[in-house]
Structure formats: structure tokens, C-alpha cells
Design goal:
The complex is a heterodimer of chains A (247) and B (94). Chain A has 247 residues and is of the alpha/beta class. Chain A is 49% helix and 15% strand. In chain A, strand 4, helix 4 and strand 5 form a beta-alpha-beta unit. Chain A is globular, with a radius of gyration of 17 Å. Chain B is 62% helix and 0% strand. Chain B contains five helices and no strands. Classes of the chains: A alpha/beta (247), B mainly alpha (94). At the A-B interface, helix 4 of A face helix 3 of B.
Chain lengths: 247, 94
């Protein structure tokens, strides 16, 4: 059964990794999929090609989610083409890992601005048309680092922890309009990044995971589709963790 | 819409209808909403989150944006203050 036929999905940072996996998963379920990217136009073009082949309709938009004008333009673009946004996935995020002693203001600001402020800007801009239609789904990508902390990630874990709090507070504001706001927390997922880990690093990570394996992007995408579905209509303000038991 | 905005009585009636329709106040009629009765707290008993939906509805109906919470609180005090707010916004555009 096609579950998301003609549903309009916007995924920020949807051209690589988990974002792309979610975009393809929605596309295969009949959704119209818009993805944004900040700067890597080469991989954006490749992703757009894949998604265009899978989706009935697709859009590729360049947008820096830490910029209010970029976010407004991005959402205006989707609304102009498709009239509505049914699901927003705040997936765009960056990492600048350093121990706090060496973490400069730019490392701090850029991570907070992209990850947390980006989530704020996109949610604030998309919520008006969602309130108008009394329907919508906002899914915010967080991290186990938000829950357990991780050395070298004070900035990243603060941004992702803030996303959890933001999610819960926003759900209390707008769930009455039929809009659910949830956080999705992927654990260690097989991506281009995990492929670069050496065996010792991989072993160390695997020891922490009760399931003794990394997750797949498809497993995370399945959770995103669930949160976006009608079956999740009474789930809001929650954190769905897909981490093999890591946390 | 400009004709309605220029006629305060008509604008107040329109706004009452907008409030009832937007917030789905099935048990309330326009006649039951007094022009200067509080919309929030007492009176209609709306809360600040109901205001969000009204903000969106106003933007759609009148192309009027309320970006500041304090401006919103003043505007939404009653039907009359809301009408005055919209009329002032329209006047600014001329």
C-alpha cells in the first residue's frame, strides 16, 4: 500500500546519509520529496537524480538552515510549487568535534546555529501553513550524544539536547492543531563516516551497543516514516531512539 | 476586504465570524461576543495558543502579520482592539 501518496515532505540536509535514505524511503511510498543542501552541490545533484527517479515529484533547494532568509526562501519555494508541506524533517546538521578546552567560538556557534537554530527557523516558518491546515508532522533529528554526552561533543550534544527540549516544548504549543512534533534519535548508523573508522574504533563502538552491530540508514528511515504516518497521529513530544540499545 | 476594513461595525462582525470559525467555537454565536469583551482569560476564555491560530487566520484574511507577542496581546484584547489594529495596518500601507 502506498502510504504517503502525494504527501509533501521537506527534508533539510536530505542529499546525503540519513537524510537521503529518508528522502528515498518517502519517495518509494508515493511522497513528493523536497530536499535541501547547504554547499555540496556535487552530491546534491547525484542525490536529486536518485530521488527524482524514485519520487513522483521532487525539488532540490540550496539553503543554509542557519540563515533566516534562506529558510524563508526554501519554504516559500516548496509552498509555491506544492501549496503545502505535510512533513518537515529537520535533519540538516554539522559536527565540529573538539575537546572544550580547544573549542573556539566559531566551532561552538556554527554547530549551534546549524543544528539547533536551523531547527528553530525551519519549524517556525513551516508551522504557520501547518496550523492553517490543522495538520502536519515535524520530525527533529537528535543524537544519543544528547542523552549520554560524549567527550569532544559539548557543542554537538548541546545542540542535539536542545533539539529534544525544543521538540517537547513545541509539541505543547501546536499539537492541539493536529501537528505532531517528535524527535528521532539514530544511534551509530552505517554511513560513509563509519566506514572510515579503523577496526579498533569500530570494536570499541560495537562493545557499547547491545545489538552488537551498527544500524542501517533504512532502519532509521523506517522510524521517520512511522512518525510521519497516520498510525503515529497520537504520538507527540516524544523521542524515538533507533540505536540498538546504545542508550 | 478594504471595504470591510473601512467600516468598523462590519469589520467587527467579520472578526467575530473569523474567531468563531477559526477556533471552531461551535457553541458561540456572533451575537454573544461583545465588541469590547476580553477575548482571552475571561470573556471567550481563549488562551495564548488559541492566539496562534488567530494570528495565522488574520495573516491569511488581511495579509497582516503579528510578529511580536506584546503587539499581539494588545491587538487581541477584544474585537474592537483587533479591528483598530487591522485598520491601523491598512492605513500604514496607504
Amino acid at each position: 500500500m502506498i502510504k504517503f501518496k502525494e504527501k509533501r515532505i521537506l527534508i533539510t540536509g536530505g542529499t546525503r546519509g540519513l537524510g537521503k535514505a529518508m528522502a528515498l524511503a518517502f519517495a518509494r511510498e508515493g511522497a513528493w520529496v523536497a530536499i535541501s543542501y547547504a554547499s555540496d552541490s556535487a552530491s546534491a545533484g547525484e542525490a536529486e537524480k536518485e530521488i527524482r527517479e524514485a519520487a513522483e515529484r521532487s525539488l532540490l533547494i540550496r539553503a543554509d538552515v542557519s540563515s533566516r532568509s534562506d529558510v524563508t526562501d526554501m519554504i516559500d519555494c516548496v509552498l509555491a510549487e506544492w501549496e503545502q508541506i505535510d512533513v518537515l524533517v529537520n535533519n540538516a546538521g554539522i559536527i565540529r568535534d573538539k575537546l572544550l578546552m580547544f573549542l573556539d567560538e566559531d566551532d561552538w556557534d556554527s554547530v549551534i546555529d546549524t543544528n539547533l537554530k536551523g531547527t528553530y527557523l525551519c519549524s517556525k516558518t513551516v508551522m504557520k501553513p501547518m496550523i492553517s491546515r490543522r495538520a502536519g508532522r515535524i520530525i527533529n533529528i537528535t543524537s544519543p550524544s544528547a542523552i549520554t554526552g560524549r567527550a569532544g561533543q559539548t557543542n554537538y550534544s548541546a545542540s542535539k539536547g536542545g533539539i529534544i527540549s525544543f521538540t517537547k516544548s513545541l509539541s505543547r504549543e501546536i499539537s492541539r492543531f493536529g501537528i505532531t512534533v517528535n524527535a528521532l534519535c539514530p544511534g551509530v548508523i552505517t554511513t560513509a563516516m563509519t566506514e572510515t573508522l579503523d577496526p579498533a574504533q569500530k570494536g570499541e563502538l560495537l562493545q557499547m551497543i547491545p545489538m552488537q552491530r551498527f544500524g542501517t540508514p533504512e532502519e532509521v528511515a523506517a522510524a521517520a516514516l512511522f512518525l510521519a504516518s497516520e498510525e503515529a497521529a497520537y504520538i507527540t513530544g516524544q523521542v524515538l531512539t533507533v540505536d540498538g540499545g546504545l542508550t | 476586504m478594504k471595504d470591510i476594513v473601512n467600516n468598523t461595525a462590519e469589520l467587527c462582525e467579520y472578526l467575530k465570524g473569523l474567531v468563531i470559525d477559526t477556533l471552531r467555537l461551535d457553541d458561540v454565536t456572533k451575537e454573544e461576543i461583545e465588541n469590547d469583551a476580553p477575548l482571552f482569560g475571561e470573556g471567550l476564555g481563549l488562551d495564548s495558543i488559541d492566539a496562534l491560530e488567530l494570528v495565522v487566520a488574520l495573516e491569511k484574511a488581511f495579509d497582516v502579520v503579528i510578529e511580536d507577542e506584546n503587539v499581539g496581546k494588545t491587538a487581541f484584547a477584544s474585537i474592537v482592539t483587533l479591528a483598530a489594529f487591522i485598520q491601523a495596518k491598512y492605513k500604514d500601507r496607504e
